[in-house]
Amino acid sequence: MQTVIAAVMDHHNAIIAALDAGFKQIEERRTAHYRPLYLATSDKPSHDVVRIWVRGFGKAMALALERWSSLAEDERLQPLLTPFVGFLDVTGSDFEPADNIDELLDEAATAIPRATIILRKIAQFSTAAAVGRRGKIGRNDPCPCGSGLKYKRCCGTGRAPPN
């Protein structure tokens, strides 16, 4: 079990490192080379593959539902969330896709990597702000760096965070 958890955390930390590197690239060059798993190949991803990735992203968001809900309700962030919407499962509704839906989904799939990088940074800021409002960080509190680890296992160790 420890091996599986360690592998999951290694993958988690690799994703965070890639997102953080992507944000630095955006700051420095206005472009980033972050590629989510659905862009692992140079081929254009199928919409079904992107839909599966977005579903997984949604499950991850559900792990911190309160924090993500407050971010989703912020009108200023709607442009960042819009690319994900086209890949959400719409069942039981009278949804009628646009005539150019494939073109729109291609554009959305291209916009998701940049949106993901920026959402990661916003989540870091909101976590740091929440910790700042509460005062001192406890050993068992989530680390304000946004790693998802407890403070005592991350920045509280005296080592650099896993970014």
Please describe what this structure looks like.
The structure is a single chain. The relative contact order is 0.13. The protein is 58% helix and 0% strand. It has 163 residues and is mostly helical. The protein has five helices and no strands. The mean pLDDT is 81. The radius of gyration is 17 Å and the shape is globular. The chain starts with a helix and ends in a 29-residue tail after the last helix.
Topology:
Blueprint lengths: L1 H28 L17 H16 L2 H8 L5 H8 L15 H34 L29
Task: Kindly name the structural category.
Answer: mainly alpha
What is the helix fraction of residues, given as a range?
A: 55-70%
- List low-pLDDT spans: none
The tally of strands reads 0
Major sheet summary line: none
Series of secondary-structure elements, N-terminal to C-terminal: HHHHH
Taking all residues together, what is the mean pLDDT?
81
Report the β-strand fraction as a percent range. Answer: under 5%
Radius of gyration, taken over Cα atoms and rounded to an integer in Å: 17 Å
From the structure above, extract its key features.
single chain, 163 residues, mainly alpha, 5 helices
Outline of the structure:
58% of the residues lie in helices and 0% in strands. The protein has 163 residues and is mostly helical.
